[in-house]
Amino acid sequence: MSGLLALPHDLVERARAGDPRALETMLALCRTDIARYARRHCEAEDVEEAVQDALWILYRRLGGLRSAAALAGWLFQIIRRTCLALVRRRRRHLPIEDAPAAALHDSGASDLELRLAITGIIAGLPQSYREVLLLKDVQGLSADEAASTLGISPEATRSRLHRARALVRAALTEQAGPGRKAVPA
């Protein structure tokens, strides 16, 4: 498997220490996952800008990363915040007569807000749950592929995935407030 979850810790550590080749390799390996995540969380015209911003922030601030294990969650948070900032910037500068009719009804805003809430919740999950959730639901791997990648049984993968989804659902329900459903059952 390639991508953020499979980056060798020594590569991340060398890049954090300032090794330019390790940083270049890491940026190249991260780009695909960052772009995939941005396509899911940004508007189409913002994807490339969000990817470039995330790679630039990674380049500038990698030394401040606390641990190599936190890299994926950290980058996904950067993408999430960048997408939100780009949407806010566009809304601030778009004349009302140029806005598409769908945007005037604010139907997409709740979807974006929900995606941003879910992203924040996933970033806060314990690593074992976050990894399986990202492999299955973000990267689209099968249970067997995710199990192989994580070095656990398919049953353990399904169990962790079920628990991760339950934690996300509970956190969303808590954010929605008493008596309100966060997501359809």
Verbal overview:
The structure is a single chain. The chain is mainly α and 185 residues long. The protein has two domains: 1-108, Rna Polymerase Sigma Factor, Chain: A (Orthogonal Bundle); 125-177, Winged helix-like DNA-binding domain superfamily/Winged helix DNA-binding domain (Arc Repressor Mutant, subunit A). Helix content is 71%, strand content 0%. It is built from nine helices and no strands. The protein has helices spanning 9-16, 20-41, 47-61, 71-93, 101-104, 107-123, 127-138, 143-150, 154-176. α3 (47-61) crosses α4 (71-93), α4 (71-93) packs antiparallel against α6 and α7 packs antiparallel against α8 (143-150). The protein is globular and about 40 Å long.
Whole-number tally of structural domains: 2
The CATH class label of the largest domain is Mainly Alpha
Please report the distance between the alpha carbons of the first and last residues. 32 Å
Low-confidence stretches: 93-97, 99-109
Please give the count of helices: 9
